[in-house]
Amino acid sequence: MLCFLSGCDNQLLKMTDEYNSYFKPINVIRTEYELEPDEEGFNEKFMLQHYYLLSMDSTFSVSAPEHCQLYRWRFFGRTKDKTVVIGAEPITTDYYEIVMPRNVDTKSRELSFYTASLGVKEGTYLLELTVADLEGNFYSDKCEIIIYKRDSHATSATVPPTDEDLESIVLPPPQPDPGE
Predict the structure, then answer these.
(1) Which long-range contacts (CB under 8 A, 24 or more apart) does 112-120 make?
(2) Which of 12, 79, 109, 165 is geometrically suited to a Cys-Cys bond with 161, CB 3.0 to 4.6 A?
(3) pLDDT in tens, the chain (180 residues)
(4) Which residues face 144 on adjacent strands?
(5) Residue 22: is it exposed, middle or buried by C-beta count within 10 angstroms (0-12/13-18/19+)?
(6) pTM of the shown model
(7) CA geometry: angle 130, 177, 45, nearest 5 deg
(8) According to DSSP H, which parts of the chain are helical?
(9) Which of 146, 142, 147, 145 is nearest to 171 (CA)?
(10) Beta bridge partners of 70
(11) Are strands 138-148 and 51-55 parallel, antiparallel or unpaired?
(12) Rounded CA gap, 118 and 58, in Å?
């Protein structure tokens, strides 16, 4: 009986090795979207893609560069000419911050949420990522989040925003976290 089990084990290993031999290792080339702040060629405007197209019933997951000491994700809806006053400085903006559900960690490297849990309608929103590297340098990037209903036949033919479009957006400043 022991010989039989030993023979099966060798056969299983041989079969696994044979199967794995069909796959060849590849050299992974990192894109500009995968660089970290301390690496040559890092550009904060490549931390996020320009836009993401999501259905109302999808889960969205994205991650920031590794090895940073601070991560902050902020999600914004669009309104018309809402003025935010911070101290003596009024700021006119077309955006307001949407509070993420409690189960969404906005201070971790990864951001993941179920679109329907945001309580938003179909439309165009804005996601902002701010990170601080280990030396305390801050970097920020923005992208559009385009949410559609599955039956609305949205396509990836949506015109993506340019760097200039995203840089021209004025966002309200972060609100202090309760308890800080």
Answers:
(1) 112/59, 112/60, 112/61, 112/62, 113/59, 113/60, 114/58, 114/59, 114/60, 115/54, 115/55, 115/56, 115/57, 115/58, 115/59, 115/60, 115/147, 116/56, 116/57, 118/75, 120/77, 120/147
(2) 165
(3) 444 445 555 788 888 888 877 766 655 555 666 778 888 888 888 899 888 988 888 899 999 998 899 999 999 988 765 666 655 666 677 788 888 898 899 999 999 999 988 888 888 899 999 999 999 999 999 999 999 887 655 554 455 566 777 677 777 667 666 555
(4) 51, 126
(5) exposed
(6) 0.69
(7) 10
(8) 2-20, 163-167
(9) 142
(10) 132
(11) parallel
(12) 11
Triad 169, 164, 66: Cα angle to 5°: 80
Sheet containing strand 138-148, edge to edge, reads: 51-55, 138-148, 123-133, 68-86, 89-98
CA distance 49 to 150: 22
| Residue 54 backbone phi and psi in degrees, to 5 | -125, 140
Q: Which two tokens stand for residue 130?
A: 């701010």
User: What's the CA gap between 95 and 30, in Å, rounded?
Assistant: 34
- 51-55 and 110-114: which strand pairing? unpaired
Q: Please report the sign of the dihedral spanned by the C-alpha atoms of residue 103, residue 106, residue 110, residue 115.
A: positive
